[in-house]
Amino acid sequence: MTLNFILPVLSYLIGSCPTAYILTMTFKKVDIRKTGSGNVGGINTLRTAGLLPGLLTGLGDVGKGILVVLLVRSFSDSSYLLALCSLLVIFGHNFSIYIGFKGGKGLATTFGVLIVLFPFVLLWAIVIALLLTFLLRDTNTAFGYAALCLPIIFIFLNGEPPWVIFGAAAALVIALKHLPDFRAYRIGRRKLL
User: Fold this and answer.
1) What is the largest CA-CA distance in the chain?
2) Closest by alpha carbon to 23, among 47, 61, 51, 56?
3) Tens digit of pLDDT for each residue in 140-166?
4) How far is CA 128 from the centre of its chain?
5) Three-class SS string for the chain?
6) CA separation (Å) from 81 to 38, 93, 115, 128, 192?
7) Distance (Å, rounded) from C-alpha 13 to C-alpha 17?
8) Does 193 have pLDDT greater than 50?
9) Do 44 and 53 form a contact (C-beta atoms < 8 A)?
10) How far is CA 176 from CA 8, 15, 95, 156, 191, in A?
11) pLDDT bracket for residue 188 (50, 70, 90)
């Protein structure tokens, strides 16, 4: 019973570790929330602080997802608990308690979760994202829309209730952080018409 409380809290706290914030402060003495896109993620770190901090941020954010999956699996065989903790690590990344509930968009951390648990789901999500990038000519918007496909992918490739629920909830958490991208894309399309 205690693990059912400790593991979700720990998952959120691990996800909340603001890799991009720490690395941009370390390498450039810059608050990533106040520079570039303001996104606390790998791409903004790359643009703000350079290649090495950007790569380390990406690896750290993917690593958070991997770490939580391995941690929860070592203590429990409950799919529901694993799905909840997998969602909370992504939520923590997107809304970090350590930096005023700011954060990234959740893609790298989701990648970390999926690469361990469901590589075929990840593969299909990437294929959809690349196809949408080609069609929309906008990477941020394409990856945001691809995330919305997660519950559908889980229905077809897995079908287990905890993972379909995880897919829907993760899609929502990621899409919330992509709302500015969706709006900017719509405004840009209107200007072209």
Assistant:
1) 58
2) 56
3) 889 989 999 999 999 999 889 999 999
4) 16
5) CHHHHHHHHHHHHHHHCCHHHHHHHHHHCCCHHHCCCCCCCHHHHHHHHCHHHHHHHHHHHHHHHHHHHHHHHHHCCCHHHHHHHHHHHHHHHHCEHHHCCECCCCHHHHHHHHHHHCHHHHHHHHHHHHHHHHHHCCHHHHHHHHHHCHHHHHHHHCCCHHHHHHHHHHHHHHHHHHHHHHHHHHHHHHHHC
6) 32, 18, 18, 28, 47
7) 7
8) no
9) no
10) 21, 17, 11, 24, 24
11) confident
Structure-block tokens of residue 179: 């709302």
pTM for the complete prediction? 0.93
| C-alpha pair distances (Å), 58 with each of 65, 140, 159, 193 | 11, 16, 30, 36
Would you say the C-alpha torsion 95, 97, 101, 104 has a positive or negative sign?
A: negative
Q: Read off the tokens for 42.
A: 């790998």
User: Amino acid identity, residue 141?
Assistant: T
